[in-house]
Amino acid sequence: xxxxxxxxxxxxxxxxxxxxxxxxxxxxxxxxxxxxxxxxxxxxxxxxxxxxxxxxxxxxxxxxxxxxxxxxxxxxxxxxxxxxxxxxxxxxxxxxxxxxxxxxxxxxxxxxxxxxxxxxxxxxxxxxxxxxxxxxxxxxxxxxxxxxxxxxxxxxxxxxxxxxxxxxxxxxxxxxxxxxxxxxxxxxxxxxxxxxxxxxxxxxxxxxxxxxxxxxxxxxxxxxxxxxxxxxxxxxxxxxxxxxxxxx
Length: 248
Hints:
This is SWIM-type domain-containing protein. One of its GO terms (molecular function) is zinc ion binding. Keywords: Metal-binding, Zinc, Zinc-finger. The model has no long low-confidence stretch (mean pLDDT about 85). A 4-stranded antiparallel β-sheet has the order 1-2-3-4. The protein is built from 7 helices and 4 strands, in the order H-H-H-E-E-E-E-H-H-H-H. The chain is an alpha+beta fold.
């Protein structure tokens, strides 16, 4: 649950990991350059003080306020009731007894009902990281291109260094493209519902049907898979040994 960002980046670099190191670094830089530009342009095109995602949540919660009864206690504290339930909202401390307001730093439906009773702008109850200006500032610094290597200014002490390849021996076989599954992940194996064995499905099964244990009757041979060429049980015409000797 704490590696979602890393998993998203890994999925984007699934095919780029096969590239050389310098090409991979340039691929990542170019990808981040496009991401920052697109998200900065999308943030500047938003028409509300909050981000579009936060504004939609506010609209859904405002609809619930029409069915709530608000009783003011003082200028900042309100008692909100709905279908026998009651919550206490403090607009000054930005808290609610439902705990959503103080946990998310985002007004719940009870806080919005109290804010409407006081004619208070709901954007003042939201944290800064839900606002449009904060999203614009997050992507305001562009990812600049590095240019051609001939235009790079490399210090002389760095340019004079000789870096050799590491002394390593490549393992036999093709390199692994996927990632290692963690201990908490479950791996599923394919099993045939015809014979019950793993490693194939019922379409490619050439084994006899599975017989249930108990008083049930075994499956007769005439219900097994037969070859249309030699009419034998246990294979089909694709794997029939008499296929080549058959004259059409």
